[in-house]
């Protein structure tokens, strides 16, 4: 897997992703502490609102950013957006009102909504061999999982010597370092052969996406994966602290199980995808993750859940989540020619976050009103629905794509 690091351009891009992720992780911790400092016991509502604003920014801004991406030099665009994120992060330590948090979060996540799809679309242009690109997808998944494990530990260590608002300086440093790494390499920036209107450019990615059979199947599987992750991310703290009556450190153990399962999947996916088609691997991952959620519901119904049992089940959910979504970049790359890739990646970014925009509050509402057992049952049903739709609309036989002239490649 590490052999692709011999490619200098990809090596710099991966390093840019890692330092930006670490900066984002520090901001997540600092934002929670800032919300508590300003709102006290209402900090949860503040963070929930901030998360909703983040998802709205992702859903609304990504297609608009993709419309402009095809007209701009990709390297310059990525650098500017990194610097915008760095500047917004520098403003966060000076926040004195809750509404200011909301405004800055919207600006920060709007820049990320433009940056992330364009960055993701650049990788297959740099690594043109599909096996190399598959390894890159797994490394990217590992980077996300390691960030979720290491950022809280790094933040805890830093808080021993600095105040929480100083963590935002680390966030800004991460984005500046990312910009420096991006500007240090030459990036491909394919341009369309003919000029398109703003409406065509804004909606092109969504139209190509929804006009492609396998990507409609991917969207259904994304719903399944989002059902799994929403249950884990939103409700783990309640399950561990309220239902199991355990300490805060036990929350970290349960979440580490989820991250660990995702990392195991990332390690073995390149080998699996060499032997099995993407569809089979992704459907199996979704089915496995859904099954673990159903088992969790059964154990809660029989009052036999323990911390280690929860960690193992969450590892299964993490494995299923990663196996379902990590290969998605291969499908997107096969669907679009190079100049359309930013638009198609932006469409996946928008539609996937639309799933989370629905499922995050649903998971929280069910937990508050129905309890853990019922929440697990309903989130399992939601995951099963996505899996069933994917099986129905994504046939095993390879389909030709009629929209935009993008034919399936071998």
Automatic annotation (TrEMBL):
Q: Sorted alphabetically, which keywords does the UniProt record give?
A: Cell membrane, Membrane, Transmembrane, Transmembrane helix, Transport
Where exactly are the transmembrane stretches of this chain?
12-36, 42-65, 168-187, 217-238, 250-269, 281-301, 307-332, 344-363, 375-394
Give all residue intervals belonging to the Major facilitator superfamily (MFS) profile domain. 9-398
Q: Which InterPro entries match?
A: MFS, MFS_dom, MFS_trans_sf
Classify the protein's membrane topology as the record does.
Answer: Multi-pass membrane protein
For this UniProt entry, what is the primary localization, expressed as one broad class? Answer: membrane
Q: Where in the cell is it found?
A: Cell membrane
Q: Which residues form the signal peptide?
A: none
SUPFAM superfamilies registered for this protein in UniProt = MFS general substrate transporter
A single Pfam family it belongs to is: MFS_1
Gene3D superfamilies documented for this protein: MFS general substrate transporter like domains
Per UniProt, what is one GO molecular function of this protein? transmembrane transporter activity
Instruction: State the GO CC annotations.
Output: plasma membrane
In terms of superkingdom, the source organism counts as Bacteria
User: Which protein, by its recorded name, is this?
Assistant: Multidrug efflux system protein MdtL
Q: Which organism is it from?
A: Ruegeria atlantica
Tell me the organism's taxonomic lineage: Bacteria, Pseudomonadati, Pseudomonadota, Alphaproteobacteria, Rhodobacterales
